[in-house]
Amino acid sequence: MESSNLSVFRAFQVIGKLVFGCWILFFSSCADAQEPNSNSSLYYPPTESSIWEETNFQTLGWDGTALAELLSWLPTQDTRAFIILKDGKIVVEEYWGNKLTGLGPMDQNSFWYWASAGKTLTASLIGLAEDEKLLSLKDRTQEYLGKGWTSMPNSEERDIRIRHHLSMTTGLDDQVAYPEKTNQENLVFKAEAGERWAYHNAPYTLLDQVITNASGMSYQTFFKERLGNKIGMKGMWQKTGDNNVFYSDARSMARFGLLLLANGKWDNEQIGDRDFFEDLHQSSQDLNPSYGYLTWLNGKNSYMVPQSQQVLPGSLVPQAPADMYQAMGKNGQFVMVVPSQNLVIVRMGGAPGDLPVPFLLIRQIWDRLGPVLD
């Protein structure tokens, strides 16, 4: 009798383990299904080759008529380069007009300026420096620029930390006569660090020097060795007035977008800390939830724009997917990343108007791009 009971007990044990295992597999499958972006499904172009696999829009079920309308409209807005990647592969790659130098037509090897889209690239380099323990986002800026890098009293200056530069919350006055200059006279107290959001170029530009002093390398060398060479990204930083501007070809911009989509991973190598790259496209503060680490975020309930303290209701680009985030620069330099659809969209060129961040243009693009993808 005892032997019979023992057999029954063991049978229930086996059944229990099988059921438990099935539940584990079930929940694991659900978790995988909820992951919006699977790095294993991404294609990465070779780093030392112009080879880049392509995908036909028809196989994706995209609307060809809407795509044709988009591509005929883009050059009317002085677009010079436009690329769409799906799962890392090129679906659209078009060039119009002349090179930046004016010498010959724009093509895949032509360099163009990133303007403020380079801010997201700088944020990524800060993340790489932190990953190497060269600095921490919690560090005081004084540790790398020295005391007196602003005109503020030390009691106020010492409160500014690297994370405040990334989130545009240094508290420095963006309404000074020359907001792009980084000399002491133009770095003036306006609010306590972390208490005011303002789109301000000077504190951002100083991050170049932070990286240089923390790493002992030139900013260009740090970029090339820690990021550019690893993902096959061409480009150079060049002083333009008081700004340090990045120049590259459109494909290099797309490579960077693909790195962002993969949260810092390239092929089989994790280039930078995944947590940092995920934080980069999360709200970095509560004042402007549509701003991450020097990166614009879509799908939030409010946003602020440069040169204004007004909080505007709604999403930054209502026409676009809510999970989209983007590097955006003057005249419409865009790197748009949509994790839920494994999309990277790059746009280079000019733009009507003189806004530091052309919100209207990106909305107009999505007015036309949305129907392509639907």
TrEMBL record:
Annotated InterPro entries: Beta-lactam-related, Beta-lactam/transpept-like, Diverse_Enzym_Activities
Superkingdom: Bacteria
Cross-referenced Gene3D superfamilies: DD-peptidase/beta-lactamase superfamily
Domain Beta-lactamase-related: 81-348
Pfam families: Beta-lactamase
The name this protein goes by in its record: Beta-lactamase
